[in-house]
Each structure stands twice: as structure tokens, then as C-alpha cells.
Write a structure and sequence with these properties.
Blueprint lengths: L1 H17 L2 E16 L10 E4 L2 E12 L10 E19 L12 E19 L5 E23 L17 E14 L4 E12 L17 E16 L9 H11 L1
Antiparallel strand pairs: 1-3, 1-9, 2-4, 3-4, 4-5, 5-6, 6-7, 7-8, 8-9
Length: 253
């Protein structure tokens, strides 16, 4: 774990030291999330998933290697973020054996708060005006965890008791995002991406050492919108603005 974090910091430092273009900004996310566990199904079982939305937001810094700011060149860079994410996975439980009665159930929400720190490789084939791709690992630090009772149509519902100690303090994920980058001016831009991620490490801790324990893996997918301020280290005598180079790109096919 320490090696992974140190490598993360090293790569971020190298990117910052060698970049020709730097972007800073802030963004918001809204996504559908699940805490996958093989003991839970989408339908037909005693415990089923309920569609659960979640929100997040934070800060971003990106470092690009465009060597002079020629807008007709493809751009590659490293992007890192600090996002505060709130997960609220809801479950519906149908007590008793036999066929589930849709009118007899209780529902609860497992609420997790994370600090997500992705380190993403970013590719822009049209130099930040159009398609953009993000892919890379993410480290998540747990801030808080609890269970909230939502609804009950049974007597004495058996809500689980979970606290922060029942979840791992650090988890590791893979993240991919596809979106569009749009320049308003030479300094300000906006990027919107559809992102999805999956946590490969178990989010839970088997505190009772159950032999039939099933891991819990986090999955999410949704929209991420970010406003950006560009700190461009361009050569002023060569940089004619993105509109000029976009016209040149189209003219050359």
C-alpha cells in the first residue's frame, strides 16, 4: 500500500515538473452506484438492490505535454483530482421464506463517505476542443460509514449495525471516462465526461471471521462536469489561438 501511494506521488511530481500546460479547476459528479455482493440480487431474492444515486465534487490539476501549445497537435497529460464522494447504497429486504411479498419489506441505506484521489492518463486528439479520454487508478480514503433506516412495512425490522470500523480505510479502483472538452476563451474551459469505475479491493472487513464471507465491491457510473482555468506556457509569437489551429486542422483533413 505504501509503495503504491509513493509511486502515485512520484508520478504526480514528475508530471508537474515537466508539463508545458497546466489546468486547474473544480467539478461536480452525479452517478448511480452499487456495493456489489454476491448475497444480494437485483430481484427475486430476500435482499435486493435499490437504485441509488450519489453525488461528489472536488478539485483538479492536470499537466500536459504539448511542447509549445500548438493547437493542431494531439495532447497527452496526467490529471489528478481530490474528490469528496458520498455513496448511499439502498437495500430492500423481504423477510420470511418462500415467495417474496412485494408489500412486506423493510429498506435501509448503507452510507459511505470517501475522499477519492484518481491519477488519470488524459488524451485529447484535437488539443482540447472535442473528444477527451481519461483512464487510470484511484485511491479512496474512507471518512465515515453508517446505516440509515429508510422504510419498514414489517414489525421489528432487523437493520444491520455497521460503523466505520466495518469497512476498509483505503480501497483501490480503476476509472475510465469519455467526454467532451470545450474552450470558452484562451483561459477558461469546461469538460463533461461520462465516468465509470470499479473497486477491486474489498470495501468491507470480515470482523467476525465468517467462513462464507462475501467481499463487497464498489461500482459507479455517471456524469462528471468540471470548470477549468488554463495556465498555458505558450510561446506568444507562435500561439495564434485555438480557433486558428482548429481551422488549420480541418483544412488539412
Amino acid at each position: 500500500m505504501r509503495v503504491f501511494i509513493l509511486l502515485y506521488i512520484f508520478l504526480s511530481g514528475c508530471a508537474a515538473a515537466t508539463a508545458q500546460t497546466v489546468h486547474i479547476g473544480g467539478g461536480l459528479s452525479y452517478y448511480n452506484n452499487y456495493l456489489f455482493n454476491k448475497e444480494v440480487e437485483f430481484e427475486g431474492q430476500d435482499t435486493v438492490y435499490v437504485f441509488s444515486g450519489a453525488m461528489g465534487g472536488g478539485l483538479m490539476g492536470a499537466f500536459y505535454f504539448d511542447y509549445g501549445g500548438y493547437y493542431y497537435r494531439k495532447m497527452f497529460g496526467i490529471k489528478t483530482e481530490l474528490n469528496f464522494s458520498r455513496i448511499g447504497q439502498s437495500y430492500k429486504v423481504f423477510p420470511g421464506g418462500g415467495s417474496a411479498n412485494p408489500n412486506v419489506f423493510y429498506r435501509f441505506r448503507t452510507k459511505l463517505d470517501y475522499i477519492d484521489v484518481p491519477l488519470l492518463f488524459n488524451f485529447c486528439p484535437t488539443h482540447h476542443q472535442g473528444f477527451t479520454l481519461d483512464v487510470g487508478p484511484q485511491i479512496s480514503f474512507l471518512r465515515n460509514a453508517n446505516v440509515i433506516a429508510e422504510e419498514s412495512r414489517v414489525d421489528n425490522p432487523n437493520y444491520p449495525i455497521l460503523t466505520k470500523q466495518d469497512f476498509r480505510p483505503i480501497t483501490y479502483s480503476a476509472l475510465i471516462g469519455i467526454g467532451c472538452f470545450y474552450n470558452f476563451t484562451e483561459s477558461f474551459a469546461m469538460v463533461g465526461t461520462f465516468r465509470t469505475g470499479y473497486t477491486f479491493s474489498d470495501a468491507r472487513v470480515n470482523r467476525t471471521e465468517l467462513q462464507e464471507y462475501s467481499p463487497t465491491n464498489r461500482f459507479w457510473a455517471g456524469a462528471h462536469i468540471m470548470c477549468i482555468y488554463k495556465l498555458n506556457k505558450y510561446y506568444s509569437d507562435k500561439n495564434r489561438g485555438y480557433k486558428y489551429y482548429l481551422k488549420r486542422l480541418k483544412k488539412n483533413g
